[in-house]
Design goal:
Blueprint (H helix, E strand, L loop, with lengths): L1 E5 L3 E5 L7 E7 L2 H11 L4 E2 L6 E5 L4 E5 L4 E6 L2 H4 L6 H15 L2
Antiparallel strand pairs: 1-2, 2-3, 3-7, 4-5, 5-6, 6-7
Length: 106
Amino acid sequence: MTQPGGTAADCVYAATADQGQQLLVHEFLDQTNMNNIIQQLESSREHIDGLGVDAFWNGTIDTMFVRTATRGFTITSTSLGAKTPADRDAPKSAMVNLAMTALSNF
């Protein structure tokens, strides 16, 4: 993957062979912003056990949210769901694995 753009809180990563395959990684820089996203999305999404203090998957927008004690991040795929339309669990599985890797370096 390459990193074609981003800022301090948001980074975009693209597949080397296909720049259309992208991930957006967002780091929450403060607790208030992180709490706002939790309140907006968490109750209606699928919780993921064993990933940080709190984690959930939003398959509608292909986004994984992970929170540690005081920090958090989201990983959003711009095209993962479209690549695996026959297997609705494939995007979630891929994002859980990616989030586990990201969390170990967070």
